[in-house]
Amino acid sequence: MPAPAPAVPLPAAVAATDEPGALSTALRHNPTVVANTSTSCTESMVRGSWAAQASELASTGMQLRKPPPVRVRGKGTSTTVKAVPRFLTCFVGRISPDVAEEDLTGMLEEKGILGVRCKKIEPKNGRTYSTAAFRVSCSVMYESIFYDESSWPEGAELRDWYFVNNNGGH
Q1: Relative to the CA of 80, which of 28, 129, 140, 149 has its CA 20 to 30 Å away?
Q2: Helices marked H in the chain — which ranges?
């Protein structure tokens, strides 16, 4: 593995501003600028590549914050206050392109998953693929059937659906 580039201070004009985009502008002019995680952003340093930055962040123990565990899951009934049911949502890929939403829904209902929702994902910009993909959702009460390998055709792939909010986060 090559040695990382020597550390060089970030240009003073970038370090002295809180202006949005100042760091990305500096990165365009000098792609080796990487934020030093042990100091503030204004004390950024120049170092190797983005891969080196990712490796450095991982070594500091920086992790995504996990949501707190659910302490109670309600089982009572109320006529005025209703809970919103939780759904499992997955990306299902490597399905034959001639399979329709109704075919996949019917197959899962035969396996015992009721109320399943299947939406075929259409390729963007006129692209074509040799396989089809679906967004599939069902109630969390069918989790054991939904994630059972024998519930799916051989070669089908399931991944958790990746939700992105409108603010650019996860």
Answers
A1: 140
A2: 12-15, 22-29, 50-59, 101-110, 143-146
The answer to whether the Cα torsion of 33, 37, 41, 42 is positive or negative is negative
Place of tokens 């997955």: 90
How many C-alpha atoms does 148 have within 13 Å on its Cβ side?
Answer: 11
Residue type present at position 67? P
What distance, in Å, lies between the first and last C-alpha atoms of the chain? Answer: 33
Domain boundaries, the chain: 8-59, 87-160
Given a contact cutoff of 8 angstroms between Cβ atoms, the answer to whether 118 and 88 are in contact is no
* CATH class entry, domain 87-160: alpha beta
**For residues 140 and 160, is the Cβ–Cβ distance under 8 A?**
no
**Half-sphere exposure (Cβ direction) of 63: Cα atoms closer than 13 Å:** 4
Q: For the full predicted model, state whether its pTM sits above 0.90.
A: no
